[in-house]
Amino acid sequence: MATEFHNLQELRHSASLANKVFIQRDYTDGTVCKFQTKFPSELDSRIERTLFEDTVKTLNNYYAEAEKIGGQSYLEGCLACLTVYLIFLCIETRYEKVLKKISWYIQEQNEKVYAPRGLLITDPIERGMRVIEISVYEDHGSSGSSSGSSTTSSSGR
Amino acid sequence: MSAVMITRKATRKWEKLPGKNTFCCDGRVMMARQKGVFYLTLFLIVGTCSLFFAFECPYLAVHLSPAIPVFAVLLFVFVIAMLLRTSFSDPGVLPRALPEEANFIEMEIEAANGNVMAGQRPPPRIRNVQINNQIVKLKYCYTCKIFRPPRASHCSICDNCVDRFDHHCPWVGNCVGKRNYRYFYLFTLSLSLLTIYIFAFNIVHVVLRSVDSGFVNTLKETPGTVLEVLVCFFTIWSVVGLTGFHTYLISLNQTTNEDIKGSWSGKNRVQNPYSHKNIFKNCCEVLCGPTFPSVLDRRGVMLEDSSSPTPSDVSAASTHKGSNPVSQTTKSSAPLIPNEHTPDEAKPSIGAGTQKSTSSPKEEKPPSPTSPNAVAPAVIKESTH
């Protein structure tokens, strides 16, 4: 089993980056932002499948909420158009509000779930909303070669 | 806190972004490199409206109604605001893949292709996705090292992949994509209205004045009218036509790029998978949909250190508005700079191609052999607790 890391800080100081796993986008519902919930094989020994799937599903729900086209988005759009979009200098768009929630959620997940298992999730917005990047760390004490770059394809369609 | 002295030169991320964009106002404004035609657009609009306010409005305000110049001013302000918003905003540029992501994708491709015999061309890099019961092909972008999302395309003028790429418009000096399409449409729509408005009231003004002083005298008194009528006449044909074309595209939820390529023209029973099959819904999605944020953190700060960085509590899960621990400055010199029309088959795999990367190693990562050009500015982010 992977060595226990107690918090993010310890992760930084005592671990070295071994590998990165990229969770790709799921385009089956069109161009909405949604990530694949398929469990990558590189994380098999590091984290429980259900925890991972929960994280990705929650993120997908957040993005769906941000991109929902309904009454609130119409209102926001029309109001903004009437004010020649100057209103965005004063208020935050709904998408930006949800992005803040996502950021908070990822930080919480990192602290509670992923860092103790030697993993770290990067906010997709920092990767152009293309991938969820999961960094896999190895403790300095271990051989460091256990989860080297895997050549097996982890995301199929 | 460490006592290590660090001399910092704060650089904003926009200074290191690849692509051929120009940035102004410290990263707040983002445009294409060639801006000449944009200045012409601005000049024509401002010039024509100035002539209108100078020559026609005083007469019409007195003889017809003061509401006429007031409405003209409102329309003019709206047109300029939409133009500037279209021109200055990020159209939806997709940042290039960082080396790790690019390598990951390369490995996946190699695994999927299996063994290619020596001398054989590797198969084109295409991923098939099913969207609403249609098979959509995602192409690989050799410049950006990503599989382009559906509806994204690479603009060869700006050298960026743009999400929901519509077209590159030299008149606004920028690409038109997901983030600024509605402003572009409102710009063409309001400009059509403004042009028709000015043209109509020019005619009205000339007619009213001619009744009093005669046609030739009218033209002598207000020479600006001739110029305005000329400009408006030619503008109406083009801009109103363009507005009509884009209204048609919006009602079908198509982009100009897809229309030109005939992606959903109905051959081979291929239908547009993004259309809601309902004109109203399509219009609502394009015009009243959510406002997407920019994923390019243009104004984030990158710090250059002359000595070893202070260990700080770096959290990867900060908001995108804060500075980023990893720079987005992957510069790759591919043998060809592909545009959206370059066929994929013509390009060999560039895994062995020269790749210059100026991406900085992450703070927690010791100098590793995977980044040969690892002497790069390190990025430090303050903790955001």
UniProtKB/TrEMBL annotation, chain A:
It comes from the Eukaryota. Residues 21-133 form the Golgin subfamily A member 7/ERF4 domain. GO terms for biological process: protein targeting to membrane. It is a lipid-anchor. One of its GO terms (cellular component) is palmitoyltransferase complex. It comes from Carassius auratus. Keywords: Membrane. Its main location: Golgi. This is Golgin subfamily A member 7B isoform X2. It is found in: Golgi apparatus membrane. InterPro entries: Golgin_A_7/ERF4 (IPR019383), Ras_palmitoyltransferase (IPR051371). Belongs to the ERF4 family. Pfam families: Erf4.
TrEMBL record, chain B:
One of its GO terms (molecular function) is protein-cysteine S-palmitoyltransferase activity. Residues 137-261 form the Palmitoyltransferase DHHC domain. Its main location: endoplasmic reticulum. Residues 303-385 are annotated as: Disordered. Residues 305-333 have a biased composition (Polar residues). It catalyses: L-cysteinyl-[protein] + hexadecanoyl-CoA = S-hexadecanoyl-L-cysteinyl-[protein] + CoA. Pfam families: DHHC (PF01529). GO terms for biological process: protein targeting to membrane. The chain crosses the membrane at residues 37-55, 67-84, 183-204, 224-245. Its EC number is 2.3.1.225. InterPro entries: Palmitoyltrfase_DHHC, PFA4/ZDH16/20/ERF2-like. Belongs to the DHHC palmitoyltransferase family. ERF2/ZDHHC9 subfamily. This is Palmitoyltransferase. It comes from Carassius auratus (Goldfish). The lineage of its organism: Eukaryota, Metazoa, Chordata, Craniata, Vertebrata. The gene is LOC113057902.
